[in-house]
Write a structure and sequence with these properties.
The protein is mainly alpha-helical. It has one domain (about 1-295). It is about 80% helix and about 0% strand. α1 (about 1-30) packs across α5 (about 65-75).
Length: about 300
């Protein structure tokens, strides 16, 4: 449990370094209207997703930096639960791309395939969410009534921004730390360890599902070496789209999003991607056999 607490502290520090400054920055940019002047560039995508164009700044933050940076920016935009469901779907699928590309490269996943597929599927997933989520979505158990805050000046803005970012950071850190501790308890289970001896790939699925690719990287890279070679491509394809399922889903629940939509879309896209890879490899194998028969 000591290791879990140490890891929780390290992850919490990373979250704080991202959430607090980006949350404050989002408030400042909104206060001075900077987002309105720059986010029109992304208007075609946001129109497709039925979102305000300033949401694209949150997309960019999550894509290039981290899911927590994207959440911090989005948290300052006073999004409705309907918008949070769409934003959450995109960010959950498409975040930390440069960082996670480095991790996936070490286990043999092509970087260009990773970048393109995550972006395209992120947009597709968010588009699905915009279609199936009711615009009158009331919100989740943690959601509060959305209010437009009027600040008396820059000092008042900073004061409120720091307070709000600290509260947001604390909620996320508590949630993530709890999941890390739960995973540590699962690892100590005799049933878990006995099952892993027969199904080594399950360890990678559990690590990726709970902690994600980035924060579970060390465990994931170690466990991945024990996975059968024919299973590796399917495992990577699934984890590329459906890692951190529990953690990220619960975070978006705090903002009142429809987490069943987010979870279902991520699982559907991940399973469809795995099926597509299987179908392609099967076609390759049969095509190769046919050519060999013709040559003989």
């Amino acid at each position: 449990m000591k290791n879990a607490l140490q890891q929780s502290l390290m992850v919490s520090l990373v979250i704080a370094k991202l959430v607090i400054p980006f949350s404050i920055l989002s408030e400042i940019l909104q206060f001075y209207g900077v987002i309105e002047y720059t986010s029109f560039i992304f208007e075609p995508i946001t129109q497709l997703l039925n979102l305000r164009h300033e949401v694209a700044i949150a997309f960019a933050a999550s894509f290039f930096l981290n899911i927590y940076a994207g959440i911090a920016v989005a948290a300052g935009l006073s999004l409705t639960p309907y918008e949070w469901t769409i934003v959450g779907t995109f960010i959950a699928i498409c975040h930390s791309i440069p960082m996670e590309s480095a991790v996936l490269k070490k286990v043999g996943f092509p970087i260009n395939v990773h970048w393109i597929s995550r972006l395209v599927l992120g947009i597709v997933g968010a588009w699905f969410a915009s279609l199936i989520t009711p615009e009158t979505l009331a919100g989740g158990i943690f959601n509060q009534e959305l209010k437009t805050v009027q600040y008396d000046g820059f000092t008042d803005l900073i004061k409120n921004a720091v307070t709000n970012s600290a509260i947001l950071c604390m909620k996320i850190c508590v949630l993530v730390s709890a999941l890390i501790c739960i995973f540590e308890l699962i690892k100590r289970s005799k049933t878990y360890n006995a099952y892993l001896q027969k199904h080594t790939y399950m360890s990678s699925l559990i690590v990726g599902g709970l902690l994600g690719v980035t924060y579970g990287a060390g465990i994931l890279l170690k466990d991945f070496n024990s996975v059968k070679s024919e299973h590796k491509v399917y495992l990577l394809t699934f984890l590329m789209l459906a890692h951190g399922l529990i953690e990220e889903t619960l975070i978006f629940l705090m903002f009142g999003s429809d987490v069943t939509v987010i979870f279902a879309i991520r699982m559907f896209l991940a399973l469809m991607a795995v099926f597509s890879v299987w179908a392609y490899k099967t076609w390759q194998y049969k095509n190769k056999q046919t050519k060999e028969l013709i040559n003989d």
